[in-house]
Amino acid sequence: MTLILSNDDVDKLLTVEECMATLEPAYVELARGIGINRTRSDSIIAHPTEKDAIYGLKSMDGIVPSLGVSAVRINSDVISWPKVGNAQRRKKIPAANGRWVGLVMVFSTETGEPLGIMPDGVMQRIRVASANGIGIKYMAREDASDVAIIGTGWQAGTQLIAACATRKVNRIRAWSPSAENRATFAAEMTPRLGIEVEAMPDAESAVRGADIVLCSTSSIDPVYFAPWIEPGVHLSSIKPAEIENAALRQCDHIAVHLREDMPLTFAQEGTGAGEAEMAKAWAEKDGIDFEKLPVISDLITGKVKGRTKPEDVTAFINNIGMGFQFAVAGALVCRKAKEMGIGRDFPTEWFTEDVHP
Prior knowledge:
Layout: E1 2-4, H1 7-13, H2 16-31, E2 36-46, E3 53-64, E4 69-80, E5 83-84, E6 87-88, E7 91-93, E8 102-108, E9 114-119, H3 121-139, E10 146-150, H4 156-166, E11 171-175, H5 179-193, E12 197-199, H6 203-207, E13 212-215, E14 234-237, H7 245-248, E15 253-256, E16 264-267, H8 275-282, H9 296-301, E17 314-317, H10 323-340, E18 344-346
Parallel strand pairs: 1-9, 2-16, 10-11, 10-13, 11-12, 13-14, 14-17, 15-17
Antiparallel strand pairs: 1-18, 2-3, 3-4, 4-7, 4-8, 5-6, 8-9
């Protein structure tokens, strides 16, 4: 049987803490050449009806031999780049009758059959937070307890959960351009974390004195700046653009998720200043050579130190995602779903064939 799961199902089955614990040894497996990850691929055309928007088909996949699974994550997106305040944002338009389209398919490496099919939304935010949480584990000061977050959207909540799972946090401050959004975020996350989340009036006051600064936004412009850096701080971002180059150049230690600093992009001529140009910009970090930076597995294995002294300024840049992560998380979700009887079973014959492809 093949499991069909909803985002609500995945939310019940997958926690940041479990995902982090499962990802750590898997990253080592990948670094040793046992696991396989394919570079993300984006195919882009101009949208047929939406002005200043594109249609993008994104895919990534990976294989985790130790877990006996492979997975592919596919997004079928309509994307625009509105200006919000002083920053340009990347916005997915819910064009499918008010909904978005993203799927994860998990397969057995023994039989090739599909084990599970599920939306990518909840898994996406948990796997991103898990990588940043591992970055905190190996790069932030052991006594880090004061956390600031810039951004209060979909990714932000799990970023805070990851920080709290990794360090003994006693203060959290949050800022985003919308006063309403940051107030709502603070009200929702305070009881969930058991720590008061303070909604701050501006970004600079939010990050002042913080031991860990989390950037978790949809901005494709910087949201954290060099004058804000203080000794001993750890910076964490979910994309390179969030931290300005001048700030990164002040860091004593920088690590990235993966040395592949942009997806494989195939863009229709005339799509303009969209995904292809943004992807190229990821590689254009003045004075920072992504090819020479340590990656997350280097931190885990001890090949490099994320921090050598308390006053070091460190940064982890979650520069690009991996299909490999979805295979790890998907394996965990499918196993727990079977054990707990969550999800719907469909005949595997519906997804296999008796005609040689």
